[in-house]
């Protein structure tokens, strides 16, 4: 039979566990309220691909000049290009795909958009941090954005910028009417928690140089 001291210890332990449980539930509820969007993004991308920092190792990317299509595409998650904005000292790796793991490494290419040279809309996105696109908001019209791929070099000239809500998908249309590069990042890096605004740079293709091994 338990003595009086043992009974008090058990009661104290149970009370401690209950209090800790209540605090944990309260803390998780606050986290869910503040970071609901981020948590949903993490859950939706739980099955992340591994990042390969080289060009497609399986088969070289080939560009067809007649059809303006890639004959071979990079594997999802692999780097296939570099994005350069000389006036802003930006030089970043471009990966095919836009998972959280990819955006941690460099610029993500939305898989629903076209590739450089294909004649359609291209949607690139990156974090608004010091080592990524923090200075993108300083960009001006007529600035050159250079995309160096394994099959060619493409130069785009900025003609417009916008600050939008992240729900305004009409501002990032994907079509094949003309080759437009849209570079997309969060707006105002000091905002705590979820950032509803996005900064978009629009640039039109100005010059194409296809590499000799694709001719």
Characterize this entry briefly.
By secondary structure, the protein is of the alpha+beta class.
Your description of this structure?
With 215 residues, this protein is an alpha+beta fold. It has two domains: 4-34; 48-214, Sortase, Chain: A (Beta Barrel). 21% of the residues lie in helices and 31% in strands. The chain has three helices and ten strands; from the N terminus they run ααββββαββββββ. It has helices at 4-34, 36-44, 100-105; strands at residues 63-64, 69-70, 79-85, 90-96, 107-109, 122-125, 144-149, 152-165, 180-186, 197-210. Mean pLDDT is 78; it is low at 39-57.
Entry keywords:
215 residues, alpha+beta, Sortase, Chain: A, 2 domains, 8-stranded mixed β-barrel, two-stranded antiparallel sheet, 3 helices, globular
Global geometry: globular
The tally of strands reads 10
CATH topology of the largest domain: Sortase, Chain: A
The CATH fourth-level homologous superfamily of the largest domain: Sortase
Give me the strand/helix succession: HHEEEEHEEEEEE
The top level CATH class name of the largest domain: Mainly Beta
First-to-last CA distance: 90 Å
Percent of residues in β-strands:
25-35%
Q: What class, by secondary structure content?
A: alpha+beta
Helicity range: 10-25%
Q: pLDDT below 50 for ≥5 consecutive residues: which ranges?
A: 39-57
How many helices in DSSP terms?
3
Strand order of the largest sheet: 3-4-5-6-9-10-8-7
- The CATH architecture term of the largest domain is Beta Barrel
